[in-house]
């Protein structure tokens, strides 16, 4: 019954707690809770956000109550997901490999570097490369170039973050992002979304449609490959990047998503089809080699973003490029495709 599913209980006296928002634990006060049905509960919490008090309904997983007689410790830390009895049994959970408040180091799998990229170094390099992206956009506008950047890869490989870095400071009137549409749509090239003269279009896992990279439909991919060759011959600047993560790192990223900090049914379906999706990806890389794909190891996501941007800048002949800034993509992370995608 609907009434049963939304019963609200209020506490006579607010109880101290901590609420996890935007990667940080904030002091909070629990005011009550409500039952949403199917064994799920939300808590009514008062918390200061940006200096202003707010009352929000938060999932229980984002709440931390102090132990009796122990003052709460406010620090930046992500809550560790807990496996659901009968649902996640036998499946991976970050809590098995990580101490409380620590992310499991699955990024080390098949990764050539010993340490993650320092955040301050990432910010500096990203800003310098974004200046080069502005030069690229100005060149495309002045010369009427049509530039399309195709981003594909594993689920949770980091294409969204890469798109944000590329488009952050570009003129939105001459930059478009084409995101995935209907996942059940037939495999076909997104011809309607092609860039106009002087425009840069980022295809975020949307160039072929999801069925192509999840099933490796060879017949449709042959037609797409022929269309790509014609488009390039007609003057389209087409750059194709494949971001790959290892199986363990994908599991970590899916488990740490904000929707409850646990694996959802959709996430579990992705994990269960890892081998099939990887094989389909290899088929895509092999079936559409012109123009060539470039594969980027993306277990260290910030480093992979920089190297992917570096690759895009290095293959487009825009005016005013500073080779000391763009440099050469890291050969340990960036390599030509078709290749076997790391599993």
Automatic annotation (TrEMBL):
| Residues of the signal peptide | none
A GO molecular-function annotation: kinase activity
Superkingdom of the source?
Bacteria
Region: Disordered, residue numbers: 73-110
Q: Is the Transferase keyword given for this protein?
A: yes
Q: Where is the composition biased (Basic and acidic residues)?
A: 99-110
Per UniProt, residues of the Polyphosphate kinase-2-related domain are 118-320
* Xref: SUPFAM superfamilies: P-loop containing nucleoside triphosphate hydrolases (SSF52540)
Note the Pfam families from the entry.
PPK2
Q: Is the keyword Transferase assigned to this protein? A: yes
Keywords from UniProt, A to Z, are: Kinase, Transferase
Task: Provide the protein name.
Answer: Polyphosphate kinase 2 (PPK2 family)
Q: Which organism is it from?
A: Geodermatophilus normandii
């Amino acid at each position: 019954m609907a009434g049963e599913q939304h019963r609200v209980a209020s506490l006579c006296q607010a109880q101290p707690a901590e609420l996890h928002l935007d990667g940080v634990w904030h002091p909070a006060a629990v005011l009550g809770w409500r039952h949403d049905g199917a064994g799920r509960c939300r808590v009514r919490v008062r918390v200061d956000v940006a200096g202003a008090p707010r009352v929000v309904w938060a999932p229980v997983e984002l709440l931390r109550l102090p132990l009796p007689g122990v003052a709460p410790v406010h620090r930046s830390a992500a809550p560790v997901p807990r496996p659901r009895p009968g649902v996640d049994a036998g499946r991976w959970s970050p809590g098995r490999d990580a101490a409380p408040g620590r992310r499991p180091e699955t990024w080390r799998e098949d990764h050539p570097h010993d340490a993650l990229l320092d955040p301050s170094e990432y910010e500096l390099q990203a800003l310098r490369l974004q200046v080069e992206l502005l030069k690229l956009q100005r060149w495309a506008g002045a010369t009427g170039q049509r530039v399309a950047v195709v981003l594909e890869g594993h689920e949770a490989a980091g294409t969204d973050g890469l798109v944000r870095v590329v488009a952050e400071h570009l003129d939105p009137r001459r930059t478009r992002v084409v995101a995935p549409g209907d996942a059940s749509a037939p495999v076909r090239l997104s011809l309607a979304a092609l860039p106009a003269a002087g425009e840069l279009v980022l295809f975020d896992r949307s160039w072929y449609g999801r069925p192509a990279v999840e099933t490796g439909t060879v017949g449709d991919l042959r037609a797409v490959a022929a269309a790509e060759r014609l488009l390039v011959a007609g003057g389209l600047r087409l750059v194709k990047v494949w971001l790959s993560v290892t199986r363990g790192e994908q599991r970590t990223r899916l488990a740490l998503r904000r929707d409850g900090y646990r694996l959802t049914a959709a996430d579990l379906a992705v994990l269960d089809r890892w081998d099939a999706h990887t094989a389909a990806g290899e088929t895509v890389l092999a079936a559409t080699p012109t123009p060539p794909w470039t594969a980027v190891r993306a277990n260290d996501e910030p480093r992979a973003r920089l190297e992917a941007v570096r690759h895009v800048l290095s293959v487009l002949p825009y005016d005013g490029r500073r080779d000391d800034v763009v440099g050469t993509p890291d050969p340990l992370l960036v390599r030509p495709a078709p290749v076997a995608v790391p599993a």
